Amino acid sequence: MERATISRQQQTQRAFLGAALMDPARAREYIIKLVPGMFDEGVSRAVFSAVQQLTMAGEPVDVITVINRASAGRPADEIRPGVVAMAETCPSVSNIGSYAAQILEDYRYSLLQSDLMKCMAKDAMDSDGVCRQLRRTLAVQDAIRSTQTDSTARDFDAVLDSALARLDEPDTSLKLGWPELDRYGVFHRGRTCVVAGRPGCGKTDFSINLASRLSKKYRVYYLTLEETAEALMDRILSKVSRIDSGKLTNKTLTPREREIIDNTAGILRRHHNMMLDADSNLTIDGLEAKIMQYKPDIAFIDHIGLLSPTDPRQTEYQSIREITRRLKVAAMKMGIVIVELCQINRAGVKGNEGRFCNLEDLRGSGTIEQDANSAIFVENRRTEDSKELRGEDAYQDTAVMYAKNREGPTGVVSMRWQPQYHQWQPTPKEDFEEIDQMNWPQ
User: Fold this and answer.
1) Under CATH, what is the fold of the domain 1-149?
2) Contact 182, 176 (CB under 8 A)
């Protein structure tokens, strides 16, 4: 009776999970390629998530352990009968590859159907919007398919034709208006970018400057998990008005300075398109939902290490791994840019005496570097240089290093930071021509 009430897709998912429970070793190569979103929400998704977590952690996969792990977010009385039924009714363990292939095909078809419905919705978008959506849809489909295939080899002429066709496509990357930084081209839609540095080096100020400049032309979502949205706005007001941020924090503004702040607010209302969020209890599930709701062109996450884990029993490594991979998929699926602010591990903070930390110093998981299309490091600040700066002419000489860029150059850009105004600017060209010649890639 029960089998008649479930769909063919649900039957396939149950058969796959039953085979995975009966023969975890054989199932491993398929478990690591699929994602929870490919399974129906409820028991099947909870069970797959549990099996995948155990598999990736190298822990035993058995019925009791899976029930305990899957019951973390759902009632055990709901999980237990489903797991037992899966383990008892799997048609054939030897067919697990076929089950996995069908689950993937069902998932791809559902994404296609959803995207095509968006395109066909009356007055939802114009012709250019439909074309952009279709390009994003194809990119996501290609990305999903590429993760499943054993070979990525293609005929030389086919790759050549594809490369030539790309040259005729419009440039959809987001531009800062700083040629010194725009030349690296890291803010392409569908990609993720890491911004990292030691504590106190100014990476939040740097990111706020990026977000503020981009918000003049694009829709920006900025999530801060370390301070309030009002504190973030104080940084922006200080930056634009050129009034020392300490006066805003301590409320010691003169009447003239308050007038300048009010005028600055009027300017910001007309020229910024930014959504500020300070939800300190946000999980990756909630973040994905908010990105879907606000539909930004670019999203800043400050910082990913403070996102709450979806499973409280996850280690920091497991949590960061899930976050970076899901953000990568979200960027590709929505055709947006996601900027992930990251901390440096303790060894990188204490032992790194050079100008910049390295990719190996990123805290949490190797998947941060693996999943990101690009990585920018803010130059380390020495303790003796951390003096208080005041006035228009006071600044900190610093730099940012483009340490990773999958589809562009890497190199160093000399910058000036005025922490009193939370202001970042590229160093005037005449002041760093020599640095440019020595350090930038040709």
Assistant:
1) DNAb Helicase; Chain A (1.10.860)
2) yes
Domain spans in the chain, listed from the N-terminal domain onward: 1-149, 179-439
Contact 267, 307 (CB under 8 A): no
398 touches 416 (CB < 8 A): yes
Phi, psi values for residue 272, rounded to 5°: -120, 145
Residues 6+ apart with CB under 8 A from 167: none
The region of weakest confidence among 115-119, 278-282, 355-359, 403-407 is: 355-359
pLDDT of 356-387, one tens digit each? 787 777 776 567 878 889 999 988 765 455 56
User: 101: which 2 tokens?
Assistant: 């292939």
What size, in residues, is the chain? 442
Return the half-sphere exposure (C-beta side, CA atoms, 13 A cut-off) of residue 386: 9
Whether the pLDDT of residue 84 is over 80: the answer is: no
Cis bond leading into 303, ω under 30°? yes
CA 176 to chain CA centroid, nearest Å: 19
Taking the C-alpha atoms of residue 100 and residue 280, their distance in angstroms, rounded to an integer, is 37
Q: Are strands 298-302 and 220-224 parallel, antiparallel or unpaired?
A: parallel
Instruction: Provide the CB-side half-sphere exposure for 257 (13 A, CA).
Output: 13
The answer to whether residues 201 and 361 touch, using CB atoms and an 8 Å cutoff, is no
Domain range 179-439, CATH architecture: 3-Layer(aba) Sandwich (3.40)
Could you write out the DSSP letters of every residue in 243-278? --HHHHHHT---HHHHHHHHHHHHHHHHH--EEEE-
Least confident span in 112-121, 376-385, 417-426 = 376-385
For the stretch 179-228, pLDDT in tens is 999 899 889 998 999 998 888 888 889 999 999 999 989 999 999 988 88
Q: Is the dihedral of CA 99, 105, 108, 109 positive or negative?
A: negative
Nearest Cα neighbor of 296 from 327, 258, 323 is: 327
Identify whether the C-beta of residue 289 lies closer than 8 Å to the C-beta of residue 279: no
d(CA 350, CA 288): 34
